[in-house]
Amino acid sequence: MFEFEEKKPILFEIILIVISFISVVIFTVFGNALYLSTELSTSIGRIIVGIALMIIYHRVFSNERSFKDPVIMLPSLLFAVWNVIYNLSSGAVLGGMSYYTEALVTALAPAIFEEVLFRGIFIYNLKKSGKSDMVSLLISAAFFSALHLTNIVGADPISVALQVGYSFVVGLALGAIYLRNNSIIQVIFVHFLIDFTNRIYLEPVVSSTVPQLILFGLLLVIEAVYAIRLCSNNSK
């Protein structure tokens, strides 16, 4: 089985994504039967599936270095800072303590589920197949970005472009950290903070101003350059 994963990492990743999402759907249906909300049921399912994948593919994480060089995570945390500044400056309203509890679960779910799938297992198999760090980074970020296309059905072209560009750059940043530090815990932590700082508001922001779009574009460029340089330095 391992030979197939490492020789056909892209095909295996597609199969694994499909199986993982089907598993999450089963947990969602079960949660709904217990009168849990669909979002909460799905989040719990993602957490369970993500942890199960870590256990099943423990060899991928056997060299986990949770506390190695955490300073390199700091630039990626600008995404979380941006979420706070953007939402508050746009008039979004913070929720109460119960809302934070729900946001905690719904932000932790994709952090565990997606990082295990796209950074941990996928990058490991890509490298085992002979791909360089840079190629592995770009492929994993492209798959991560493609996954988020499901969130933009019916959206306007600008929103589509922003979502695709944003998820691709986030994938680059998280992938570069993982390649450098070999720490799934670090990228889960960063991913969680990015999502959490965007889920703690009662009123969603419905539109962006031109200055906000320009600043957001600049942030994406800075993060992309940082990720590429970090990956390049790691390959030397």
What does this protein structure show overall?
With 236 residues, this protein is mainly α. It has one domain (2-235). It is built from nine helices and no strands.
SSE blueprint and pairings:
Elements: H1 2-7, H2 9-33, H3 38-56, H4 78-89, H5 97-128, H6 133-147, H7 157-181, H8 184-196, H9 210-235
The structure class reads mainly alpha
Share of helix, binned:
over 70%
Largest β sheet strand count, sense and barrel closure:
none
> Helix count, per DSSP?
9
> How much of the sequence is in beta strands?
under 5%
Total strands? 0
The gyration radius over C-alpha positions equals: 18 Å
Shape: globular
Tally of individual domains: 1
Low-confidence stretches: none
How would you spell out the order of helices and strands? HHHHHHHHH
Average pLDDT figure: 89
Distance between the termini: 32 Å
What attributes does this structure have?
236 residues, mainly alpha, 9 helices
Give a short overview.
73% of the residues lie in helices and 0% in strands. With 236 residues, it is mainly α.
